[in-house]
Amino acid sequence: MAREEILQRGTFVSSQKALARFVARPVLRFIQLEVASGILLLVATAVALVWVNSPWHESYHDLWETTIVLEVGGLIEFSESLEAFVNDGLMALFFFVVGLEIKRELVVGQLSEGRAAALPAIAALGGMVVPALVFTAFNAGGEGSSGWGIPMATDIAFALGVVALLGSRVHPRLKLFLLALAIVDDIGAIAVIAVFYTDDLSLGWLPVAWLGLVAVVVLQRFRVWSLTPYLAIGLVVWYATLESGVHATIAGVLLGLLTPARPLLGEDEAREMVPDLSEGITVANANQVSFVAKESVSVAERLEYALHPWTSYLVIPVFALANAGIELSSEALSEAATSPLTIGVVLGLVVGKPVGIVGFTWVATRLGLRLPLGMGWPQFIGMGIVAGIGFTVSIFIAGLAFTDEVLRDDAKIGILAGSAIAAVVGLVILRITSRGPAVSEEELAEQMNDELDGPDDDRYPPVESSARS
After folding, report:
1. Residue 228 falls within a domain, yes or no?
2. pLDDT greater than 50 at residue 45
3. Hey, which bits of 219-306 come out as E strands?
4. Which of 81, 109, 349, 453 could form a cystine bridge with 105, CB 3.0-4.6 A?
């Protein structure tokens, strides 16, 4: 059912209850975007594989090796290949949106409630630790040992896309659990990139990046509402982070986490600021109404709403097109089949992920936590296998871990193979275990409300009219 149709009906989703506004509608929209993004991601990957294994493979490499030069007054100079621009520039925008999603979930979403967040967080921890250990078991001390972070990541778009193939047959709480798990997984992947996949630090540029982040906080405290200064400072932070040796995408995440996730205007203050329109509408009071309406929604939600389609439908497919071009000759496949690196990635995703997720969750349930109502272990295991689809961030980490093209391609072949196996096996298990009645999207939102228990509006106290997040 289309989102517009849902909002036209008198359902929980279309209500003005806090849970509907802050959780239900954003989550439903997020899932719809990620499913469509997964399809484009698959198409872009297929195009890259066909292109690089065709007679025109040289044009593929020539395109992404094209040099881009940007220079500002001799002080700022960016000279990188088109592939590096995608990985360092466009992916910073993707990680900025990831930071916005994490911030929203931590402040007003499912992860803001300790009780609701505990189990997905524990499951995500297991889904990161065990795959890394499985990979290390095959590569410790070898030339591929630095790739231990590759099988830790779950691709939200592909994972939700696979679950969406079963439609309403999959319990709604399972979709929400997978989404929360993937968000925590992103936090872990970001930490791994920042700490373990950082080049030699430049102490000259790093303070510039930190000063830029401090400036963002100061502007928020002084209630500077225009996005223009934040954009300018954000570009400086991105460039300084790039030059500092820390990967530039970390700048995107940090800026996303600093974005206010609560409205700058509380409901009472917004009502007081709405002008009297009884005597007609003028340009001045129309602008005032527009301002009040805009600032009654958090900056994080507005930016996520505006940028998420761009990152889902453009940035990620372009990233896949630039990075999924792998030679699949018989010689390359034969070499990868016996490579500890490829084997470690495949087993990390296919075995390590579900074992870690299910194992850590089982231990947590023995210690007092419980699975969400209506979710059984067979279907939960299927979800754990689907979480082994590690594509976008896994490929990203592979590019950071290895400069050697052969090692990088072995890792990418392992990612493609492991993700494909996880998708097929997970889909089959979910199909077998999902025999319950259909659940509509309206019921999904209602059950989200039931899952958290307690009055809707009492869970979210009135938002103070300040720029704090």
Report:
1. no
2. yes
3. none
4. 109
